[in-house]
Amino acid sequence: MSALHRLTLLLSLILSFGFGNSYAQDQIQKAEELLPKAEGEQRIVLLQELSKLYLDVNIDRSIDYLKEVVVLSSENPSNHANALYDLGNLYRRVNNFRRALDCHLQALEIRKSTSDELAISASYNNIGEIHKILNKHKEALEYFNQSLEIRKKEGSQKEVAYTLNNIGSVYWLDKDYSYALEYYLKSLEIRSKLGDKSDIAASLNNLGNVYKNLNKYNKALDYYKKALSIREELGDESLMAYTLNDIGGIYWRLNNFNESLNFYNRALKIRREIGNKRYTAATLKNIGTVYKDLNELDFSLKHYNESLKIYDEIGELKEQANVYSLIGNLYSSYNNFDKSQEYHKIALNLHEKLGNTKGIAYSSNSIGEILMDYYKSDDALQYLESAYENANYSKDRNLQKSTSENLFEYYSNKGDYKKALEYYRNYSNTQYDSIADQYDKARISEFEAKYEISKNKEEIQGLKEYNRMQTILIYLFIVLIIFAGIIGYITNKNIKLRKETTATLTDKNRELEEINSRLKESDIVLRDLNLTKDKIFNIISTDLRDPFIDLKNISTKLIESFEEKDVEHQKALALGIRDLSVHTNELVENILLWSASQAGKTNFTPKYFNIRESINGILQKLSGPIIEKNLKFLFNMDNTSMVYADSAAMSEVFKNLISNAIKFSYPEGKITISAREKKYLVEMEISDEGVGMSKSNLNKIFRLDSNYLALGTAQEKGAGIGLLLCKEYIEKNGGKIWAESEEGKGSSFYITIPKSEKIMESVPKTKA
């Protein structure tokens, strides 16, 4: 027996036992004791085995040993290429893709000289995979196709299916779902014939990914569940967890949050048991998002923080940044915008460190939105412009749309309509479905049809005529596409000619654009003035006239009743006159106040005042209708709660909202007034259990151009002007107003009021 053969046998025995932590160290020590005296082929074999032993213990040492193998095997082209190939795989494992690519390219050149076609195809495939990781999709496809060409001729069907799947994954990353579907289906067809259940499940899962991105969630769910069934049968827990997580994502998109949590928690349990930290963190992040949508904010934050802790342990900076962004969004739900900004800025710093343009765009856009919408700060611009620039660089269509829309809003608010128009055009460019998109959908249907036919070959004869008609329709569609392309080409040429002939008119066009922008601005102002005028005329012509007619009729009846001397009847008529007088007085007051505010004649003087004291004063004034309906008031608020706003304006707001709650409550009903303390705001809720509103009517209540009116439970009338006044006063005092309602179950009106001067500094001051 040769020395080399004996050494190989010894090392095989060492490895055959397997190893735990202590045992592995023992075997490594024995192998390393043999190394100093080993030479030539013996040393190469020993180095290779040590590299394998260190693979899961210390990968850097594994790489060092394999480097020496590369040097020592340089005289044997085949062995040298194999060593470079293995070293490339190790570098890929530690995410050193540049060195991995270099090793695989060297291995490929050597293999080309040896004409080992199958080895060449393996190199092509690995080089393609690295290019895919590096987002060089064009190069990845070139190498995958070269690998496929060889494997179709000389490789196994399993290898062909693997490469087809790789090509499909590149098209999937490029969002070219028609081609992705074509290659995934071809791979599945081969794998189905081979009967390899693990590979079949992988293909089914990939098809689920395609349909998920096409928003065909039920179809995606069908493929995922088929993949899960196979993986459960095989007992492959790691891949089961992967599919369970995908199914959880589909149920989340379908707003079925309970089912989503069910599948996510099943995936989490498996991943924790396996000890896969990266995927455990990913599932915790997903669960946090579901709880956010369920408005369980504490549970959401708990899961996000658990996820963040794990990503920090494994040094996954990109995912840490993503979780920081999610926590930033979560704090926005609390209206804690300082904290939200803090987390978005941490995410931004990490994305900048990584050079992740898409992440930079998202975080900058989030910070810019907060500064623009909430703080009204000019600092928003630098973040929004950075977001726009990075969104365009990353070519992410959704981010391009969002950043353009925000810059349009920013410049519109500043009155720079020329700039606003520029970004509005960019926003509009993201809002179309191209002919290519429609063609994509047609191709998807074609591939689906082809695959279904190939699965059922015994039915092909009966389907030939149908397939022929489908083919004719597809060709007709292609002809239409070509025809549309020709028209588009001709149109494009005409556009270019027009541009050339009108180049000298550019300056005039710019002037016209500026004039047009000013006209649009004036048009908006005039439209609002017309709506205001129409609203007032409508109130005067109907709502204000009707009470006076009623007063005339009731007073006439009261005069006539003196002849009958019916005291109870006279009392009822007098009460009717009183109620109408109160209603009319309130209506006139609201019209005058709202008109003055619209004309800019209202002077707001903010100061600190106690909410409960203000509400108590309103309830005293409204005690009459409260007692008549025997209504119960519940308070859920701190009696010492203070806000910073114009107290007279807020008193009008409280009066109108509480009056409405009384008006639309049933006798002996309940009205709840709540106040929740936020960091910079107090959020108030005034809710009743009365008649409520439909969704369509709810959308009309704060609009000038709507004439929605409703009678109270005691037939009380209203003109709708009170809610417009509330909106006007709330917004000019730095707050917001919105409502929720369900027909037959009551309504809740929400308002926010600043707690300090800091917030009011950003509110435009109204001059008398």
From TrEMBL:
TPR repeat extents: 81-114, 121-154, 161-194, 201-234, 241-274, 281-314, 321-354
Entry keywords, A to Z: Kinase, Membrane, Repeat, Signal, TPR repeat, Transferase, Transmembrane, Transmembrane helix
Gene3D superfamilies: Histidine kinase-like ATPase, C-terminal domain (3.30.565.10), Tetratricopeptide repeat domain (1.25.40.10)
Catalytic activity: ATP + protein L-histidine = ADP + protein N-phospho-L-histidine
CDD domains reported for this sequence: HATPase
Transmembrane domains' residue ranges: 472-490
Signal peptide residue numbers: 1-24
EC number: 2.7.13.3
Histidine kinase domain span: 539-757
Name listed for the protein in its UniProt record: histidine kinase
Species in which this protein is naturally found: Marinifilum caeruleilacunae
Lineage: Bacteria, Pseudomonadati, Bacteroidota, Bacteroidia, Marinilabiliales
